[in-house]
Amino acid sequence: MRLDVVSIFPGYLAPLDLSLVGKARASGLLDVRVHDLRRWTHDRHHTVDDTPYGGGAGMVMKPEPWGEALDEITASGEPDTAPVLVVPTPSGEPLTQRVAAELSAEPWLLFACGRYEGIDQRVMDHARTRMRVREVSIGDYVLNGGEVAALVVTEAVVRLLPGFMGNPASLTEESHGDEGLLEYPVYTKPPSWRGLDVPEVLFSGNHARIAAWRRARALERTVERRPDLLHRSRRLTLDTLGEVA
Ligand code: ADE
């Protein structure tokens, strides 16, 4: 997978060299290219922002440097290929495991990290005429810019690439997976620690009992912490209907 990231703070993307994402890069699974937006400015001050039309607080990122950056980067690919443009913004569609899975199936992602009050809307509108564009939010809070969000999206996506995880089974049972429930609590050795014991059932060797216990704990957690997720859990809905019937 090829990943291009455009930002006025390329240093923010340094974590892409670290950890598993860095390893995926080193192994050739990932081709990451970080670009400084100011490279596509032409004035002495390398201006990337201006005041908003219609008034209001803050500054808006000018379309020209973005247009040139996207033109040059998209032209650097194979003929007849275009990246998916990912624009982190608090007004985007929510990043979910499904969105991460969809993006992980793409050969090329181009992240446009905005700062200030955002990027002139015409940049996205124009890009839509030549490539797919996804404006994505990582949560209902406002960050200072898209860089940290781009790191979040990247990590969620890259760990789904075939050959990335040492143990692909650990992808199948986690929170926000197909089942739509939060993950059950997990334990390892020692069996007793600071007076707290690992639940007895986990020593039983009875796989059906363990699976039932885990599902009950996952449900309990989801009801308590994320009741909004429950309608999405198909099995739960069917089980509940079964109980009601
Ligand atoms: N940029 C600023 N806040 C953001 C958010 N919550 N998600 C994605 N990008 C952002």
UniProtKB/TrEMBL annotation:
What is the phylogenetic placement of the source species in the record?
Bacteria, Bacillati, Actinomycetota, Actinomycetes, Propionibacteriales
The protein in question is named: tRNA (guanine-N(1)-)-methyltransferase
Reaction(s) catalyzed by this protein? guanosine(37) in tRNA + S-adenosyl-L-methionine = N(1)-methylguanosine(37) in tRNA + S-adenosyl-L-homocysteine + H(+)
> Which family is this protein grouped under?
Belongs to the RNA methyltransferase TrmD family.
- Per the annotation, which location comes first and is thus the protein's main one? cytoplasm
EC numbers, comma separated: 2.1.1.228
Give the top-level enzyme category.
Answer: transferase
From the Swiss-Prot or TrEMBL record, state where the protein is found: Cytoplasm
The gene that this protein is the product of is trmD
State which residue ranges cross the membrane.
Answer: none
Q: Which GO terms fall under biological process for this protein?
A: methylation
